[in-house]
């Protein structure tokens, strides 16, 4: 069977992670324990997840013409992701997330940078790639008009659109209409239903709501369907949602039923939290196969 073709349109960031015993007060300088640069961005994370699970993944996005942009492109290529449509831009730096880990919690400042250069005008030139996809995966770390245009182009060509509404923003009706599957977590679900002005029953039929270890809920002909989660020893939940979305896209692109796709994606999300890091914890297809076999035995 041919590898399912997934096009991921979204953000590519470098995460700048500082670990410290405590956060400095305003005007104060303190010593940290460790500093790391880690590839991130919801778009890139989901692309890595889909690629490790056997998808033929094309990434569409923007980075700066700087050291971080070069490193991130090389990283995506090592993961087997097609990057010829990731455009380096001169006027903006590569997007970053400055993350401070201290006192058992994190503080994050995201600077979108070159991700904001992924405009709807740029997306139009990738229509042939979108049309040739089995599924298009979108998130909200790039400009909303770009997300809307990408979904419309995919819908025009009958390509499945999976929208991960994170970080949460109010979804325009036209984007909801063009999306086939919308994947909020339980907090985003509450915000989504509060902000959505259309028929709640219409949007509910498109929702796949992730609830961490409790599993996932979706609606079928108005009835709630619950797919259980898997009990694992959670080490780091960073990137679990991105792992889930990449897995869901691969299974939907293969033609799996929503129920089977969600069950598989739940396993991927569970495995991803057993290791540190967003992308570093994402499992391969073989690891998922062995994990599911162990659940049956």
From TrEMBL:
Subcellular location: Cytoplasm
Binding annotation for ATP: 185, 210-215, 241-242, 266
Associated pathway: Carbohydrate metabolism; D-ribose degradation; D-ribose 5-phosphate from beta-D-ribopyranose: step 2/2
Pfam families per record: PfkB
Record-listed E.C. numbers: 2.7.1.15
InterPro entries reported for this sequence: Carboh/pur_kinase_PfkB_CS (IPR002173), PfkB_dom (IPR011611), Ribo/fructo_kinase (IPR002139), Ribokinase (IPR011877), Ribokinase-like (IPR029056)
Gene field: rbsK
Residues the entry annotates as binding K(+): 236, 238, 272, 275, 277
Binding site for substrate: 13-15, 41-45, 141, 242
Xref: PROSITE patterns: PFKB_KINASES_2
Active site feature: 242
Top EC category: transferase
Stored CDD domains: ribokinase
Full protein name: Ribokinase
Keyword Oxidoreductase in annotation: no
Span of domain Carbohydrate kinase PfkB: 5-284
The keyword Oxidoreductase belongs to this UniProt entry's keyword annotation: no
Function description: Catalyzes the phosphorylation of ribose at O-5 in a reaction requiring ATP and magnesium. The resulting D-ribose-5-phosphate can then be used either for sythesis of nucleotides, histidine, and tryptophan, or as a component of the pentose phosphate pathway.
Primary location group: cytoplasm
């Amino acid at each position: 069977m041919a590898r399912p073709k997934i096009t991921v349109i979204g953000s590519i960031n470098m995460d700048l992670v500082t670990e410290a015993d405590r956060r400095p007060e305003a005007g104060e300088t303190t010593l940290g324990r460790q500093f790391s640069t880690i590839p991130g961005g919801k778009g890139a994370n989901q692309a890595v997840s889909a690629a490790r699970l056997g998808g033929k993944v094309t990434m569409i996005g923007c980075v700066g013409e700087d050291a971080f942009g070069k490193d991130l492109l090389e990283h995506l290529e090592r993961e087997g992701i097609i990057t010829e449509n990731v455009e380096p831009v001169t006027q903006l730096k590569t997007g970053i997330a400055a993350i401070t880990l201290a006192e058992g919690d994190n503080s994050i400042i995201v600077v979108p940078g070159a991700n904001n250069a992924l405009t709807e005008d740029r997306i139009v030139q990738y229509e042939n790639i979108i049309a040739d996809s089995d599924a298009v995966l979108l998130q909200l770390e790039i400009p909303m008009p770009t997300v809307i245009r990408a979904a419309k182009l995919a819908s025009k060509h009958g390509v499945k659109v999976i929208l991960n509404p994170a970080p949460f923003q109010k979804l325009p009706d036209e984007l909801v209409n063009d999306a086939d599957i919308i994947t909020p977590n339980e907090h985003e679900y509450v915000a989504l239903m509060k902000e959505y002005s259309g028929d709640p029953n219409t949007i509910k039929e498109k929702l796949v709501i992730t609830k961490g270890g409790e599993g996932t809920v979706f609606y079928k002909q108005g009835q709630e369907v619950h797919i259980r989660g898997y009990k694992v020893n959670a080490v780091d939940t960073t990137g679990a949602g991105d792992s889930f979305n990449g897995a869901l896209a691969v299974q939907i692109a293969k033609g799996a039923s929503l129920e089977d796709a969600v069950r598989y994606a739940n396993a991927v999300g569970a495995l991803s939290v057993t290791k540190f890091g967003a992308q570093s914890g994402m499992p391969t297809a073989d690891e998922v196969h062995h994990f599911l076999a162990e659940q049956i035995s």
